[in-house]
């Protein structure tokens, strides 16, 4: 079999279509004679399945093998997730960053190209990355958010099921800012509803972190907390799949309850979230965060080439301030050349796009990116070697998402939390005993004026105070009891 080099080649499409029609014996023969030994299939799992499930799993393996130009076969958990959705079962996928959760969504489009999938996604930048990734697999995809144009031809195609995958922000599914978005209106049309076959909830932890009240504070993106209403709009039996690399028990339970997952008709898949190539470390800030000398190690004097680093900040002033400071430590001829940049929502769309693309480019100028919260989700830059929290994050779930931005291609990478002095001395006397939400603030209830030290979550305080292995602290937070949880 001679595969073409492009995913849109008609011969490739013919091979995919043929694979969708093969019987189980033909699928087994194809796999035996075409899939090489260096891409081993999960044989033990496949042999444990009945013929129905095995047919789906083998078909998926071959479709992915063909569509990836013989580079990839699915992992066991990806096959389990696919079989769950095919058989109408809701599914939770709890696996670390970079483990292949996106392929769980791609597989169903390869398997059933004449149906429509919806992925609920939190950020516009992430939506664009997802569209690009799906289109690389030959899947017709469009993102839908408040910037989507009111182009009649586009919306006719969406309505008629031309697009195999819709990447949607949750605000587009219901009343938003006093009007009903166009996609929400389509949910009342049977011609559109009948095209929808499944729903994926990407970065599912956003339901809990953004969509629910947080210890006295209202949700800052209420639409994430109303996805159960969206589910009620859909025909009965459409399966939902919730995916995240940060699902401690209290967040996972909240998602499953919200989406009405029936324990008897749902599959929960959990892989180790441990990344053996990540080195975890903490450091106590000297003085205050305003003393940027604490970050001198990022740009040495005398100058040595800097490693690609992503630095997170609580606010835009600190983000811009450290950028100026580090740029000033560069040799004169390298200053203002874009080696150190900042990235936050206060910048223009054009600037953010330019900086993002430059930082993503292995040959780009930007080597140190100072960013606020938005860059912690979906920033897939393979060559980041250091991720730094300049100041204690409020929640361990946020910390885990940020740590996952480093070492994406398997190289050794550092995740460093640079904490102020107060976490080491803060009183924990007011912490309400509660074994469920380990991210609860040490002050109990929050208001808009609650200062940062009182907002800090118990899990983060205990993390930076820990005198034991940080990898062990993380495995306890995520209830990761796998054999790989502490591997390095």
Automatic annotation (TrEMBL):
- Residues of the Helicase C-terminal domain: 293-458
Asked if Hydrolase is a keyword of the record, the answer is yes
Alphabetized InterPro entries for the sequence: DEAD/DEAH_box_helicase_dom, Helicase_ATP-bd, Helicase_C-like, P-loop_NTPase
Is this entry keyworded DNA repair?
no
EC code(s) of this entry: 5.6.2.4
Give the catalysed reaction(s), semicolon-separated.
Answer: Couples ATP hydrolysis with the unwinding of duplex DNA by translocating in the 3'-5' direction
- For this UniProt record, give its keywords in alphabetical order, as a comma-separated list: ATP-binding, Hydrolase, Nucleotide-binding
Gene Ontology biological-process annotations: double-strand break repair via homologous recombination
* Official protein name in the record: DNA 3'-5' helicase
Organism field: Mycena venus
